[in-house]
């Protein structure tokens, strides 16, 4: 285990709800995603961490959500993106085949955080840095994860905590408005409710 993933596990704790990644899926993404990520998939599978606050995911399952959020944007002309991870509340971590970790979506607020790629960085090193640089509090929303976990129960790999009604429809980021929902379907739905607000970081 490299030191960056060791730091990630120290912060996020043991995995839950592990799913093994088929060799055919690893072959599908060979050359599209860094070999380092494929090695993580092979070793650790797709899992939840920190009791389900953060999830590594099958990008193929999230293609409908990806298309809903950036399918009609200039981002799709810039690169081919894949969802590689998500938070319990709908932060989507996108990886560009050429640009790497330069696009993240915070779905509840219809925000997209875009950064310039560092073309000098090695793809596998960039993937290690991605995991090593993750923190629990960046994935929580208003400190709601612990009370949501207690009230609504632990998430499965295809669940998320969704705000209902969505903020775009007048909902608020409060525990009272949280429900356990199917992740991909909910993400695709709320993508239709408001224009995507791009923030350059």
Keywords:
201 residues, alpha+beta, GAD-like domain-containing protein, 8-stranded mixed β-sheet, globular, 24% strand, 10 strands
Q: What is the topological layout?
A:
Layout: H1 3-12, E1 16-19, H2 23-29, H3 35-44, E2 46-49, E3 54-56, H4 63-70, H5 75-78, E4 81-87, E5 91-96, E6 100-106, E7 111-114, H6 123-132, H7 136-139, H8 145-152, E8 159-163, E9 178-182, H9 183-190, E10 197-200
Parallel strand pairs: 7-10
Antiparallel strand pairs: 1-2, 2-3, 3-4, 4-5, 5-6, 6-7, 8-9
Protein name: GAD-like domain-containing protein
Condensed summary:
With 201 residues, the chain is of the alpha+beta class. Helices cover 34% and strands 24% of the residues. Strands 1-2-3-4-5-6-7-10 form an 8-stranded mixed beta sheet, sandwiched between helices. Strands 8-9 form a two-stranded antiparallel sheet.
